[in-house]
Specification:
- This protein is mainly α and about 110 residues long.
- The chain is built from four helices and no strands.
- It has helices spanning about 1-55, 55-60, 65-70, 75-105.
- Helix 1 (about 1-55) packs antiparallel against helix 4.
- The longest helix is centred in the N-terminal third of the chain and has 52 residues, at about 1-55.
Length: about 110
């Protein structure tokens, strides 16, 4: 009987840890997606607009130069992907750290 109670307590603890891990990873995905969108908007749109909408660029840059500037957009999008992974990783680690300290036993009561 005691063995079953200990096993059920262990399973409940594992379920709680799994739910917490899922929540941490979900928060990381959301934060990373937000960072990627911001990075894309902040870099890709001005790059495209500078070539297509600025009269100076249209007048002074030939088609090859304009194409080269536009071809940097995939690099910009790759930077957005890097922003996604960096922010998602930091968010998951910060959330896990916060949760580990929240559920840790108080060290002052042991002294």
């Amino acid at each position: 009987m005691a063995k079953n109670v200990a096993q059920s307590a262990t399973l409940a603890s594992l379920d709680q840890q799994l739910a917490m891990a899922k929540r941490c990873s979900h928060e990381g995905v959301l934060a990373g997606a937000k960072a990627a969108v911001v990075a894309t908007i902040a870099t890709a749109i001005p790059t495209l607009a500078s070539v297509r909408m600025l009269p100076w660029a249209r007048a002074n840059l030939n088609h090859t130069a304009q194409a080269l500037i536009i071809s940097t957009v995939p690099i910009v999008i790759a930077a957005a992907g890097a922003a996604y992974f960096i922010v998602a990783d930091k968010t998951v680690l910060a959330t896990a750290r916060k949760n580990s300290f929240k559920h840790a036993p108080n060290m002052e009561t042991r002294i």
